[in-house]
Specification:
Coagulation factor XIII A chain, EC 2.3.2.13, mainly beta, 11-stranded mixed sheet, Transglutaminase_C_sf, acyltransferase, elongated, 6-stranded antiparallel sheet, Immunoglobulin-like, Coagulation Factor XIII, Chain A, domain 2, single chain, 12 helices, cytoplasm, 4 domains
């Protein structure tokens, strides 16, 4: 008796006056499905064994079998069936006797979550028919032999993404007989960029191979004048990563019924990738202190981060923009949404969408760090995801910006996107989500404003070209860089650019107009400067060049300020001040060098070895001010990686990582990390110290699993030196 009461208790749902069933947002929870569902009183002589009975179900789920091959899911390190929606897959059912279509009746049931409902797409009954309609649920028999039948099953091109439970139901005169719950027949259904009816359909095979199936990528960092790159392991096919990605949607409390929509998935994922306001995956830290966690620069890929979060359910410390973007890219590609990682150089930030970054100057023309609150990021990484946008007018589908780095709140949470790249380019920022913010990140102007004693502001200089100068991503099928700036904006100064700006202003992007009387820049003198490329720990020089295009002689009082900055452009310390008077002869150019010694910067250097230089010059004869600012980076030495012995799948071999300390100091608390998707899971090793000029060597033995071209990625991290990387392409032979 006690048993029946407990099941009754379970079947009673918690009372809630607002909805009949509780919200359904866990892919993991299950409901009890009865093996015998009686139609009424069962007669005494009834024996289920007299009827058609399922003995076994065969899912063709091995990587080399038809389903995973045809659905491009053979790389997933997962024993269960994984298929893509809107495309047929096959299963075989073995019965206790031959199937007789005239008298036997059976159907399939796919269920998800704890409260499956047909109208929500979480309970899907499939009756066997004679034809399959494209993009709609259905099944037909394609082969019969002895007691077995083979079915071809078509899933809907709009169905929910996630893990379904499969049951086979057989109709008898007295009730429905079902198969037992068997987790071996669980089926994952993913987005399908190969299916024309899917919202994420991409028509180019090379692009699908890159944006869905490539499990390593490149992060471009550094700055406009000095673009640097490093590899990142996405690892979307590694063991347990798919389950971890599905868990993120549970964590974000996205209703199961909404999980067929890539727009919704991207929107909630951009919030759950960061830990602000929802205890999401990664905790950001930009302050150079990474106690009780891993420095952002030490990660070599996404797998460790996702798996740690999946097991601990606590935010993983720490990330900065490329870490958020790398993990987001893994999530999107894993679920089958085409995605790529983007870097925007000189990215405007904290811009409350007014297209204006204010840098305040004091009376002498020096930058006033007290008043200046805005910062220009050397670079900022975000993602683009490919999808149709049926919620927007025609023409705004395709690449959408999504950003998991917590910068500004959107609808009350730290998230950003999806925003149509096409809408940003044309200034149509009225279309959801967060287009004005992204428009400002790539289009703001820098205003140099002098504060007069009486509090009035005088605009001395406007730089319209610096922000969003270069927007890049990795090329398809290679490790090179592609400039995609033109996808975000028209050429500076073109008529189309003006029009896009006017459109953006019309749709609510704030742009303060400057009355012509107050702003009259010095047009007959140009000023620029260049920082010499230098290796960390060495001296280098900065050359300032004036070009006097007029017939007048001028003298310019010039201020040079060198700052050590975070890559977000926020200053840690001004380490070099220098002022001089420059004599500018008519119609000629003159250059001035400033030498920067390593002893001036080494003690305060931050991890990305990033400087920010300001040069302001006041033309004494006219009182006008010229201003230029730029970021510069030092060359950071790399790790050397080599392999020893032959590289054959299934055979042990070894890899050697070497590093020589270039600094005039001992490196303390050194950690090395090494990983390679499909080759080896991340290995970490601590080294106490590396004295100056000495070389560290680390040998790791491993057994590559799969043949093909693979990549090894290593990073070194220490108190004084971070962002040290190395990588090696390796060709693994077939055994």
């Amino acid at each position: 008796m006690s048993e029946t009461t407990s099941t009754n208790e379970e079947n009673k749902l918690p009372l809630n006056g607002r909805r009949a069933i509780p919200p359904n947002y866990s892919n993991d929870e299950e409901n009890e499905v009865p093996e015998m569902e009686a139609f009424g009183v069962i007669p005494r002589g009834f024996n289920p064994r007299d009827y058609l009975r399922v003995v076994d179900i065969y899912m063709f789920k091995e990587p080399q079998e038809i389903n995973k091959q045809e659905h491009h899911t053979d790389k997933y390190y997962n024993p269960k069936l994984i298929v893509r929606r809107g495309q047929a897959f096959q299963i075989q059912i073995d019965f206790n006797r031959p199937y007789k279509p005239q008298s036997d009746q059976f159907w399939l049931e796919f269920l998800m979550g704890r409260y499956p409902q047909q109208n929500k797409g979480t309970y899907i009954p499939i009756v066997v028919g004679s034809v399959l309609k494209p993009g709609q649920w259905g099944a037909k028999i394609i082969h019969r032999e002895n007691n077995s039948i083979r079915l071809s099953i078509m899933s809907s091109a709009t169905c929910i993404i996630g893990k379904f439970r499969l049951y086979v139901a057989v109709l008898t005169p007295f009730g429905i007989l079902r198969t037992r719950r068997n987790s071996a027949t669980d089926t994952y259904i993913l987005f399908n960029p190969w299916c024309q009816l899917d919202a994420v359909y991409l028509d180019d095979e090379k692009e699908r191979e890159e944006y869905v199936l490539n499990d390593v990528g490149i992060v471009f960092h550094g700055n406009v004048e000095d673009v640097k790159s490093r590899s990142w392991s996405y690892g979307q096919f590694e063991e347990n990563v798919l389950d971890a990605c599905l868990f993120l949607m549970d964590k974000a409390e996205l209703e199961l019924s909404g999980r067929g929509n890539p727009i919704k998935i991207c929107r909630v994922a951009s919030a759950v990738i960061n830990s602000r306001d929802d205890d999401g995956v990664i905790a950001g830290s930009w302050n150079n202190a990474y106690d009780y966690g891993v420095a952002p620069s030490a990660w070599t890929g996404s797998v460790d981060i996702l798996l740690e979060y999946y097991s601990s359910k606590q935010p993983v410390r720490y990330g900065q923009c490329w870490v958020f973007a790398g993990v987001f890219n893994t999530f999107l590609r894993c679920l089958g949404i085409p995605a790529r990682l983007i870097t925007n150089y000189s990215s405007a930030h904290d811009n409350n969408a007014n297209l204006r970054m204010d840098f305040f100057l004091d009376d002498e023309g020096k930058v006033d760090t007290r008043l200046t609150k805005d910062s220009v990021w050397n670079y900022h990484c975000w993602n683009e995801a490919w999808m149709t946008r049926p919620d927007l007018p025609v023409g705004f589908g395709g690449w959408q910006v999504v950003d998991g780095t917590p910068q500004e709140t959107s609808d009350g949470m730290y998230r950003c996107g999806p925003a149509s790249v096409q809408a940003i380019k044309h200034g149509h920022v009225c279309f959801q989500f967060d287009a004005p913010f992204v428009y400002a990140e790539v289009n703001s102007d820098i205003f140099y404003t002098r504060m007069e004693k009486n509090g009035t502001q005088v605009v001395e200089n406007i730089d319209t070209t610096r922000i969003g100068q270069l927007i890049v991503t990795k090329e398809v099928g290679g490790d090179g860089m592609v400039d995609i700036t033109e996808e975000y904006k028209f050429r500076e100064g073109s008529d189309e650019e003006r029009l896009a700006l006017e459109t953006a202003v019309m749709y609510g992007v704030k742009k303060q107009s400057i009355q012509d009387t107050t702003y009259q820049p010095q047009t007959d003198v140009d000023m620029d400067f260049q920082a010499q490329k230098a290796v960390l720990g060495n001296d280098f020089k900065v050359t300032i060049t004036f070009r006097n295009k007029s017939r007048n002689s001028y003298t310019a009082t010039t201020y040079f300020s060198g700052n050590i900055v975070f890559y977000t452009g926020v200053t840690k310390r001004e380490f070099k001040k220098h002022s001089f008077s420059a004599k500018l002869e008519p119609s000629s150019s003159s250059s001035f060098d400033i030498v920067i010694k390593s002893s001036e910067y080494m003690s305060d250097l931050l991890e990305q070895a990033s400087f920010h230089f300001f040069v302001t010059a006041r033309i004494n004869e006219t009182g006008k001010i010229l201003a230029v600012q730029k970021a510069a980076m030092l060359e950071i030495p790399t790790l050397r990686i080599k392999t020893k012995g032959e590289l054959v799948a299934g055979k042990e071999t070894s890899v050697i990582v070497e590093f020589t300390n270039p600094l005039k100091q001992t490196l303390e608390n050194v950690t090395l990390r090494l990983e390679g998707p499909g080759l080896l899971r991340t290995i970490k090793k601590q080294f106490g110290r590396i004295p100056m000029n000495s070389t560290l060597t680390w040998e790791v033995k491993f057994t590559p699993m799969r043949p093909g071209l693979r990549k090894l990625i290593a990073s070194l991290n220490s108190d004084a030196l971070r962002h040290v990387y190395g990588e090696l392409n390796v060709q693994i032979q077939k055994p």
